[in-house]
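Q:
Got a chain?
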Amino acid sequence: MQVKECTSALMRFAKTTNIPVLLIGHVTKSGEIAGPRVLEHIVDVVLYLEGERFTSYRMLRAVKNRFGSTDELGVFEMSESGFQAVSNATEMFLTEQDPDSDVLVGLAFTVIMDGSRTFIIEVQVIFELSLYKKQW
């Protein structure tokens, strides 16, 4: 009840002063927003900032948008001056390989869509090359 009342007070403040209010919540290990689900129903937009711990890339995904689409995906890189939009997000999913390298065995590319954004990703199969050559 306390979370609902505090959120309602912040919403009234935002509407009367025309000042945007950001509420930052915690996501549990299972991927759910911690706390009461009523919070998601009160707010206009729910955004998830996703990414791996050891990379500088983050994806901003809209789960709820009362006034627009949730089909967009923002890709950002953390730099010294803050988040910067990544213009060619496909680069983060590809590695540079020498065309004569044995690494290219077991390497494939595929195209996926996330929302309205298209990515080319690299899929690698890891195996012992010497075993592969012996079988053939």
